Amino acid sequence: MPVPVPQQRAVPAAETTHGADLTLLVIEDDPAGTIAVPELSSTAGARVRVRTARNLTEAGRLLTDDVDCILLDLDLEAASLPTGARADGRDEETGRPDELAALKHILRIAPRHAVLALTAEDDAERAAEAVRVGAQDYLFRGELDGRLLSRAIRYAVERKRADIAQHQLTESRLRAQENARLERGLLPTPLLDGSDLAFAAHYRPGRSRALLGGDFYDTVRTPDGTVHAMIGDVCGHGPDEAALGVELRIAWRALTLAGLCGDDLLATLQQVLEHERQSEEIFATLCTVDIAPDGRRAGLCIAGHPAPLIARQGRAAHLLPYEDGGPALGLLPHARWPRRQVQLGGSWSLMMYTDGLIEGRVGEGGTQRLGQDGMVAMVNGRLDQGLGGEALLEAAVTQVQELNGGELTDDVAVLLLERDEARIRRKGRNAMRSRPSAASPAVAQRPPS
């Protein structure tokens, strides 16, 4: 029967205490016992306890959690390998005898233990190969004394500890990179081909080192020329809320492209939320706007979400009406969300945002919230400076953070849609000029008689 691999502890003993006693497992099969392990001690006064195994099967039984280091004789007979562990001691690729078969077996069953290889003085090449395979160091039999062995054990244990820490760090970095790629891929790509509207967005999750939070947004243009925009917020700040936000965003895009809007769309989204949420206490706020193809009017639906802000040319920014809004998604079964028509005008900027933008602290001691009125005043100040697009959003979020006195703890999502009627007219005139002149109609020729 194959020797069971002993369960490895999460943290080797040497990782927990410096200067503590260590345990050495010596594996050698010389019946005469010619490998003499000298009396071992450390400079700190701690002792090194020694266990001896005559074969790898016995070593498997003695390899307990309190073993810190293994001293393996590389001349261990291949016959000592347990059944099923390459019992013939031959290399799998070349078929020749594998001089490191015993070492490879030990490295497999003790991946978190330090290993020292023991060999003859004239076998330096095999000793170096043992280190390349995975041993922490090698020793020659003729040089084996207490001081050298004690120092080698301490060095091997610390080197193994450093190797494990580096491996864990590398795994953590790779996992973080993979998560970043995944989260970045889940952020929306607006579908606005053919639209005259300008789009900008700013997204900042509240979770440390995250790219995705519970806030979500999206913008698409349907074949009839209508531009649909949405922004929402799942209550909470963890990865589960972020995942639910992605699900709702994707569902919104699919339903919008399928032709739903207003109350029908929100009612369906509520069903999605109810099926996908982890708890009945989870809800989501949402605001949707569908802008007519001419860009001058829009339909507005609010589900417990802050009302959008609109700035028309030559006028101060203000909030759109929100009195007709409905409850947040997931709060009330069979709820309704009226769709309100609003006039936008010729040139305008429409800003949609989540409550992370307005819940930052302001004033001495941070006792007050910025609130919607404070946000409107702040945005008007930036508009007076001539800012627009991404520059406007970046400046607004930065100022909110400065007023808060540090990083915002809540997710923040802001999107901006803008229509510049003068630019659209110039674009139309330039398009007319660039068209080739119509060719004169050809004179029909009478066929010969």
Automatic annotation (TrEMBL):
UniProt keyword terms in alphabetical order: Hydrolase, Phosphoprotein
CDD domains listed in its UniProt record: REC (cd00156)
One of the protein's GO biological processes: phosphorelay signal transduction system
Low complexity bias locations: 433-449
Keyword rRNA processing: no
Domain Response regulatory: 23-156
Modified residues (4-aspartylphosphate): 73
Protein biosynthesis keyword on record: no
MF annotations from Gene Ontology: phosphatase activity
Pfam families, per the entry: SpoIIE
Region (Disordered): 427-449
Protein's name according to its UniProt entry: Response regulator receiver modulated serine phosphatase
